[in-house]
Design brief:
about 650 residues, alpha+beta, Immunoglobulin-like, C8orf32 fold, nine-stranded mixed β-sheet, eight-stranded mixed β-sheet, about 35% strand
Amino acid sequence: MRLNQRLLKWKAWFAFGAILFFSQSFANEVKIDWLEKSASRTYTFAEEFIAADDLPSEKTTLLHDIEIIFDAGEVTRTVRQVNYFPTYNDAHTAGNESIYWDKEVEALTVREARVLKLNGQAHRLNPDNIRVLDSDAYNTFTDQKEVVLPYSGLTDKSISILEYQIKFSIADLESSWSTIIYPVLFDPVKNFRLRVIEDEQTPLTYSSNNKDIIDCKVNDNELECESADLSPNKSDVDIIWRDVLPQIFIGETQTWDDVIANDLKAFEESNNKDDSVQKMLDRIIDDGMTQRQKIEAIHKFVSRDIRYVSMSELGHRITPHTSASVLENRFGDCKDKSAMLHGMLSLIGVDAKPVLVATKRSSLANTRFPSTGYFDHMVICFDSEKQFYCLDPTDSNTDINSISSWIQGMVSLTLEEGAKPLRIPLAPHKWRLNVSSSLEFDENANVVERQERIYHGEYASGIRSSYGPKNDEERNEAATESFHKVVSSLVDPTFEFVGLQEMANTAIIRSEAKYTPFLDPREALNYVENDSWLNRELDDVEISSKHYDARVHGIDVQSTINFDFNKLWNVTWYPPNLNLKGKYGEMTRFVTTTGKHKIQVETRVKITTQMVKQGEIESFNEFLKLLKGESALNFVGETP
């Protein structure tokens, strides 16, 4: 039995954001070859369903059937899909079907696409209505298109019927073939079937992450998986779906060293240490720089002076363009920019390594099967002068001291012999913020509030990304809106921004606001000041997941507030010192007084990056609630 069998505890899903463009010319390349009704297994299945009495009350996938046949290096993938739409809302929200298609190497033929009503009426798809969208997905290794099929005549109590074939040659692929099958997503599935037939020249291996719901059998060169009445996966928030959904992985039999050797050979096609790279490097650095300064200068050049353009056309799925062409064009994708960064670092003596990243996967259990197919991004990692760096050359806002926040914790593969998948390191405290505030009362109880927020590392990058591209008016509007939500909507502060254009470790926002009296100086003081920015950070780490474990990205917030009551009151009660430590984090507070009128409150909250089990989420959120309660600062005082 050459088709090896591996049953793993897998979890996975993918969904990537995209900028979509319509192309009618691609739509013309979608071949239509309608089957006769009598020849369509899919249509026959739908007709048999109509005759049944027990119709589902919710949108249901009645048939999910996939057949993949290898024949002398040629691959034919046939997909049959039948969906039932019981309500108008189902038809309105999910009435289009999508096929993902790599037009450079694949031939797509739509063989059946129609709607069947319960009364037997049928509406076949008008080929002129087919739309092809260019996802132009950021940081992906494909040039995949989305073919959208808008069904005609779809209403409530309708069935959609789809059958299509995709054909391609193994020889046209830059890396070994693999695919992931998702038997069930978010609708119930009545019937699931997968059939794969390998040939002599393409031995395959498969893995399934949930043998309890999917029955797979191998018979010589054929894999067949079947299941029925699959329950939908529970929807949730802040979940990496590739980590939690059932799936079946099928691919050519190989080792991780095979994957690395193939991808490294492709990477070296960039010729990233040629004369043009050396000449540009000589303009970027000089002998007076330290090694660290050289690394900073190189990273800044590649991330900012080489703009990102998706360049994953045929022949360049995993193979970078030459660095000379990237320099001439001043654009490239993640692998082009990584090759440039790698070449320049090598020329200054840094032993850097290209690293593949799966930006939608954090579970190592889901990547045990060796394949390039998991990965959709590339970065450069290395050690220099006893410090570890992992630089994303598509990120023009994060300085070299930090790892880009969006890849932290994601599965990676260093292109070095003997390497195995690992996670990109997670910062123990990804969101680091220092807030210094002062509230000064004048003799009439007007208040001037000054704040300085210093964002560090990954947080500084996020602030830079959010505010940096805006003009002055837009920037102030955005900062005012944030201030209103977090601090107070009673005033419109003035703002000063520092470090929004530099790739620095910090970004600073300063504000000044003037409040009319909200306390009567003739009455005794009873005043509560909420530590607003601290509360905001605690709100942001609250877990909303209802069904799955959740990762919390750590925070380290230091807040210093200076109160000057200007002798309007003699303060007799103020917040006590605090040293609160728990399972999930800690809060400390130190209070310093100067006479009876000036008080400084220093508060620090640290919550380390951690995975919170589903059964502990309520306890974790209760801990946050406790911290938020303690962040309310209460002052009591008497009039002189």
